[in-house]
Amino acid sequence: MTRNTEHVSEFQLALRSFKKNRLAVCCAMILFIFYAGAIFADFLSPYSYRNEDRNYSYCPPTPVRFFDEGKWVGPYIYGQTLTFNEFYRRVYQTDTTRRFPVRLFVQGDEYKLLGLIPSRLHLVGVQEGARLYLIGADSRGRDLWSRILYGAQISLSIGLIGVLISFSIGLIVGGVAGFYGGWIDNVLMRLCEMVMMVPGFYLLLALRAAVPDDFNSVQIYFAIVVILSFIGWAGLARIIRGMCLSLREREYVLAAKSLGLSDFKIILRHILPHTVSYSIAAVMLSIPGYILGESALSLIGLGIQDPYASWGNLLSDNMSIVRIKFAPWILWPGVFIFLTVISFNIIGDTLRDCLDPMMKAERK
Amino acid sequence: MNPKRIPNQPLLKILQIPNSFWGSLFCKNIIGFFILFLSWAAFLPLSTAENTHPFRYGGKLVLTTTSDPKSFNEIIAKEVSTSEITAYLFEGLTRVNAVDLKVEPHLARSWKISPDGLTWIFHLRRDVKWFDGFQFNADDVVFTFNELIYNLNIPTSSRDIFTINGQTPKVEKIDDFTVKFTLQSKFAPFLWVMSQPILPKHKLEKTVTERKFNFTWGIDTDPREIIGTGPYKLAKYVPGQQIILERNPLYWRKSVDGDQLPYINKIIYLIVQSADVELLKFLEGSIDYYVLRGMDFSLLKPLEKNDDFTIYDMGPSSSSNFITFNLNPGINPKTNKPFVDPIKLSWFSKLEFRQAVAHVIDKQKIIEIVKNKLGYPQSSAMTEGAGFFNNTNVVQYDYDLTKAKELLQKAGFIDRNQDGILEDSQGHDIEFNLYTNADNTERVDIAAIIRHDLEKLGMKINFQPLEFNILVSKLNSTFEWEAIVLGLTGGVEPHFGRNVWASTGQLHLWYPKQTTPATSWEKRLDEIFDLGVQELDENKRKVFYDEFQAIVAEKLPLIYTVLSAKLSAVRNKFENLNPTNFGGVFHNLEEIYIKKEYR
Amino acid sequence: MGRYILKRLLVAIPMVLGMTLLTFILMQITPGNFLDTIRMDPQVSEETIGHYQKMYQLDKPMFQQYIHWVYNLFHLEFGYSFYFNIPVAKVIAGRLFNTFVLSLASFLFTWMIAIPLGIWAALHRNRWIDRCIQFFSFICLSLPSFLLALVFLFLASQTNFLPLGGMHGPDFENMNFFVRSMDFLKHLIIPTLALSIGSIAALQKIMRGNMLDVLSQQYILAARAKGLPEDRVIYWHALRNAINPLVTLLGYEFSGLLSGAALIEIICSWPGLGSLMLTAVRSKDIYLVMANMLMGGVLFIIGNLLADVLLAKLDPRIRYDKKH
Amino acid sequence: MQDAILKINHLTVAVQEFNKETLLVNDLNLEIPRNRITALVGSSGSGKTTTGLAILRLLPQALYMKKGAIVWEGQDLMNLSENQMRLMRGKKIGMVFQEPLNAFNPVFTIGFQIGEVLKQHTTLSGPKINDEIVRLLTTVGVDDPPRILNSYPYQLSGGLRQRAMIAQAIAASPSLIIADEPTSNLDVTLQAHIMELFRKLRDELKMTILLISHDLGMVVHLAEQVAILANGRMVESGETKSIWQHPRHPFTQQLKQKMVI
Questions:
Q1: What does pTM read for this prediction?
Q2: Chains A and B touch (3+ CB pairs under 8 A)
Q3: Of A141, A168, A203, which one is at a domain's C-terminal end?
C-alpha cells in the first residue's frame, strides 16, 4: 500500500511522543509479557490444563522452601494430604518426612508447542508424589497457574481476532457507504442502526444459543469471537463513514478518479489509510470489550466450556463469596483480566493523544 | 430416620440470649416492640374466645425463593416456584403426614373402600370455609375433577396422574358432604394422589364456561380474588420482589391443645436470584431460613452459636445423579442413520461394560470433593428418603479398578496394541462422547471425576457440557447421544416413576417409547409396574418394588452416583419445629409458632 | 424539520420489524423450546405436552406464528407470555418502573458527576489533579460492573449500613411515604453505583477530550481578546460547543433507559426488565422477548431522533432540510 | 516621533520543547505612533503573530515572556494584574483575526457576539445595544445590518465576516487595533475594500492600527511605518517610503521581489 512519506514521519513523531509517556510504555511491557506467556503457555506451565488430581481440590499455594535447618538445599516442597476439619473445611497437612526437589526443564505432560512441535519439556516441575501449585488449585485439583497461562491463549486472542473481524467489516461498510453515498449509504447505515438497536447482551445470548450443539470447544471459541465482533462493527462503520464522507471531496481523491482507478482501489489506497490513525486508537479501546464480553458470557454459562480454560470461565466458575472466603487465590484470573483491560485502555488513550495532530490534519 | 438434631427447648436455653444479639439493630426494634406488646396485651381482650395460648400468635416468617411464581392457578402451573406458594393456599381431601409418610384425612373426614377396591366413598368435613366465607362442599370436589382436571382444553399434568391405563375415575356427588369415586382398575396410590388441591366452584365456574380458565389467577390478579381453604391467603405480590401471605382467620384446623391454627401472622417470600446474596441476607439476619449448598457448611457451622441459628441435617435429598448409556438401536427417520454407532451400541449393551463403569465410580471421593463431604452414596433407584419403599439390599459396586479391568477383559475389551486405550474384539478403540448440562456445576464436576477414572481404565472420553435446552432436545427428539450424566427428582411413591421405568415411557432415557420391551428385564419391569399399582396391600407392593430396585441395580440401565445432603439453617426463633427428610423444616407450618422475644 | 422527522419515522418501521424478525428467527432455529423443562418432569405425559404445544401455538409453522404476531401488533396485542400465562404487556408493565428508575438514577448520577469532572480536568490539564483523575478513571473503566456489584454487596453485608439488594425493606407497605422513599433510595445506592462507575469514567474522558478540543479553537482566543471574564469564556463559549457531541450520546443513553442491565439486576436482585429478559431468552419465552426487543427498538429510534433534533437546535450548522 | 501609544522594549518570547528552548521573538524594540498605521511584516513563523498576542498577554500556555516590557501610556502591561489586563482587552486594544469563520463562535449569532463586547465594556443595555451594533455594522460598510445581526457566522460570505469581525473589534472604541493578517484569506477586490476600511478607521475614528501581514506590497500604500521581522528578530524598521525605495536588508529585498512578479 503506497503511502506518502510525509505520513510515515508523522508516525515516527507519534511513536516518539508515545515513548515519552512512561505509563503507556509499562502497560505495553505488561501486554508483551502476557502475550509471550500465552504463546509459550505449554512450556511455562508446570501441568497441562487438563491434568487434574482430585486429592488436591482447592489446595492452597504450596510454599517453596530453600533451606533445610539452615543449610542451602535448593528449591523443594513437601507433600500435602487433604483432610477435613470438624466443620468439613479443607485443611492440607504437609508431611515434612520427604522432600520433593523443584527442578527446572522437567519432563511433564505431553503437548504440541505452538500446535506443531510435540514435546514434554516444562520450565518447572516436581516429580510424582507431590504437586506444585504456584498460586493454588481449583475445585478439581488443576493447577490454577497453568490454566491461567492456557486461558491467556484464548482470552488474549479473542480480543485480537474479534477486533480484526469487526474492524474489517466496519472499515469496508463504512468506506463503501461513505464513498458511494446515496441509497447505498442509506441502506448500509440503516443496517448498522438495526444491529446497534438490539441491546448487545441479548443479541449475544440469542446468537450464542444459535450455535449448533455438536461444536467442539475450539469451534465454540470461534463462534463466540464472531458473535462478539458481530456486535462491535456497527459503531465503527458509522464513524468511518462520517470520515470518508469528508475525505471524498478531497482533490487527490477526485484526481485519482479522473485517472480511472477502480473505486475499490481508491477506497482501499486513498481513503482508508487516512482513517488508520483513528482506527488504531479505536482498536485498542475496543479489545477490552471482547475480553469482558467473554467473561460475562462465561458467568451465565455460555462462554468457553470445560475442560478448556479461559480467564472468563476460570473467574466465573468460582464466583461465590464462600469460595472467595476460603480460597481467595481463585480471584487471580480477575487480576489478570483487570491488568490486561487497563493496559489496553491506557495504551489506546495515549495513542489517541499522540495521533491527535494527525487526526486534526485529517479532519480539516 | 429422624434427623440428628431435634432441638430440645429447655426453658434455660431460651434465656441464654447470645451477646451479639444485644448489639444488633434487630434487637433494638424487638425491645421497643416488646414493651409496646406488653402494654397492648394488658388492655386488649383476647381476640378469639377459646385460645388457650394467646402468647403464641403473631410474628412473621421471612423466606426466599429464586424466581417469580408462574401463576396462582394450581391446575396450570406446576413449577416449584408456584407450588411452593399454592401449597399454603389450597388443600386436598387427603394429606401425607411428613413424619411417618402415611396418608391422613384432611378435607375429607374419612373414607371407605369397596371390597373390589374400585369404589371409594369420601366423607367431607362440614366445618371448612373458603377464604370468602362460602361453605366448602361436594360440589367443589366434583367441579375440580369433572370441569378442571378432566377438561381437555385445559392442559394440566394432574390429568396424567389420574389417567389409570387410559381411563379416569368417575366422580359423583352423593350428598352435600359425600363424594363417590369409581375406578376402572385397582390403583394403590389413589389415596396418595387424592391430596390433589380442590378449587372453589363458585369462583371459577364462570371462567370455565367462558373458556378463560387457562388465563385466570395469573400473577396480574388482585390477591383478594385467589380463594382457597388453606391456612394462609395471598396478601400481596410485588413482581420480582416479594410475595406476602397472611393468616386465614377462618381456617378450620385446631391444634392438639385446642388453639385455632395457624399461629404465625405473616409469611414473606423475598425473591432473590443470586445464592450469594441469599447467604449474605441470612448472615445479616433479614431472612430466617437458608438451604445450604455443599460449600456453605464450613462457613455457617462455626457461626451457629453466636449468630443464633441451627443447622438441621435431614438426610439424603431425593434428586439423583447418574450416568447412562444410549441403548437405542433405532434409526433416525430424517437422516436414516442409526441414533448410536452400532459398534458403540454393542459395547454399551454388554452388562460387563456397564458393571465395569459402576466399579469405577469413586462415590466416597465424589462426596468429598463435590459435596464437601456432605453427601450420601446411592445404589438403589428409590432413595433412603422414600422410607418404606427403599430397598437397601441391592447389588453394591465398590470402587475397584482391578475388578473393573477383569470385567472388561471378560467382555473382550483388551488393550492389544499397548497404546493405553482398550480395543473391542474387532479392534476398535473404545472412545465415546460424554455430555452433561453445563449450568449444574456440581454435575459437571461429578462427570469430570467419572471421566478421569474411565480414562485411567483405558477409555477415551470426549467430555462436553451442553446448554440444558440442547441436552433435552437430544434426549427427547434427536436421540443422538452416547453417554450422559444426568439427574431426575425422585419421590416417595414408586408409581410416579413409571414414565422412567416402563419401556413405553418417554423418559425411559436409554431407549424411550419402545413398542415392545427390548430386553427380558425391561419386560419384567413393565409387569412389576402394572401389577404393583393394582396391589392395595402395602407389604405385597413392597415385594414388587424391591424386585424392581434389585433388577435396576443388577442390570444398571442408570448407574447411580451420589445424593447431596438436605441441610438447612433456621433462625432460633421457632417452637414446635419437627424437620423430616420428606417434609423439610416447615411441613407443619400451621403448628409452628414464634418465641415471644422474637416477634 | 417536520418532514425530516416524518421521513425518519417511516424508515424506522421496517427497521424495527426487521429487527424483531431477526430475533424471532434466532429464537426459533435454535434447538430446544419452552417446553423442555416440562418434558423432563416424569409425571407429564406426551399428550399433555401436545396440549401445551397447542395452547402456545408452538405447533404452527414458524412464519405463520410471526405473521400472526405482527397482525396482533397492529391491534396493540403483544401476545401471551408462555411462563406467566398473562399478556406480555402486563408482565413488562410490572417491572417497567423499576428498570426506568434504576437507569434514570444511574444516568443522572453519571452525567452529574462526569460532566463537571471532565470540565474540571480539562481546565487543569496535566496538573497532578488531572493525572490522578485520569488514572482513577482508567481503573474504574477496567473493572467489570458485575464484580463491582458483588464487592459492594459483600461490604454492605459486613457493615450492614446498606441493604443487600432488592428494592424495599421487608415490611415496606406500612411505612409512611417519606420513610418508604428513604428506604427505596437506600436500596437504589448499590445498583446505581455498580452501573455508573464505569460510565462515569468513560463519559468524563469524552467530556475532557471535547473540552480540550474546543479550548484550542480560535474563537476562545477571540473571546478572551474581547476582554470577557474567564468564567463567561469557559461556561458560555467553550462549554456550549463541547456539549454538542454528547447530545448523540444522550440519544443512545435514552434508548438504554428501559433495557436494564441484566447482570447487575440479578446480583442486586433488582426486579427489572434486564433479569426478566435474560430468563425469557434462556427459557425461550418468545413473545416476552419480542415485546422487549420491540420496546428497545422503538426507544432507540425515538432516542436518536430526539438527539438529532436537539443537536440541530444547539448547533445551527446542522441543517436537515437540505440534502446532506 | 509623535508620542507613541505603545512602546515594545526588548521583547523576547520563548517556548520549551523536548527540554530545548527556542526563541520565537528575540529582543524586539518597536514604537507604535498614535493615529498611524504601523505594519509588522514577515514570513510565516517570523514571530509577528506572537508579538501581537504578547501585547494582549494572551500567549498560549507553552509560550512565555523571557524578558522585555510593553509600555502602554507610560505603564508596563506586564505589571498589571490579570483583572486590570482583562479590562484593557477590547476596551483599550481590539484584535482582528485572520480567519473570521474560526474566530466567531459558530453557535452564536453575530449580533450576540458583538453585543457581548458592548455589554462588557459600555453602560449600554437593552435596545440601545442593538442600535449601536447596527451603527457599528454600517460604519464598517455592511449594507443590511439587521440581517447580518441575526445570522450565524457560517451563513455570511468571507468579506462580510471580516467586516463583522472589525465591527466587533472597534465596538468598545479602543485606541489600538491589532489586525493579524486581516485580508490574506480574501480575494483581491475584497482586500482593497478592507484596506480602505482601515484607512477610514485611522482618519475618521482616529484609531491606531498595528497591521500584521506577510504581504509587503499590500501594506506599502497604507502603513506610514513598517517593521520587517525575520525568524524573531527585527531586521529593519522606519518610514514606509524609505524602506520601500532602498531596502537595506536582503530579506526585505526578497519580500519586495515577491510582490513585483
A1: 0.80
A2: yes
A3: A141
